[in-house]
Amino acid sequence: MRLLESLAKLCAILAGVLLTVVTLMTCGSLIGRNLFGATIVGDFELSGAAAGAAVALFMPWCQFQRGNIIVDFFTARVSRGRRETLDRLGALLLGLTMALLTWRTTIGGINAWKSGSGTMLIGFPEWVIYVAMVPPLALTAIIALAQVARGSPTPSQ
Fold this sequence. Notes:
Layout: H1 2-36, H2 43-64, H3 80-115, H4 126-150
């Protein structure tokens, strides 16, 4: 689990760096537009692509911390064993969903690469976005399935 934790932290750090770069690019574009009448062409395309990649990059850390949605309102009064069973079931469902997303995102990336598709204004290759999303989605699936196998105490325990 230490390796998974390290990889999840690395993904979260990369997501933070990516969003920082997008923020700086957006600020540069706004300053350029307001002061000099020039903007960064395709800034919204790059922002959208980076945001999608950042969401995927944050998922492993979120799952490792058990920060994904848990509806404990309904399970607050059940026994700890039953709650652990439900948590494992939720982790299993999330792990299977992330595995499915990994598979379909991989296929989408291959199709984007084969077709040479790119963004409208600057032609940024779309397959690059898929490449950035596949590893963290797979890592999220692995973390969730490891939590099913080993159990996953809440961070407060």
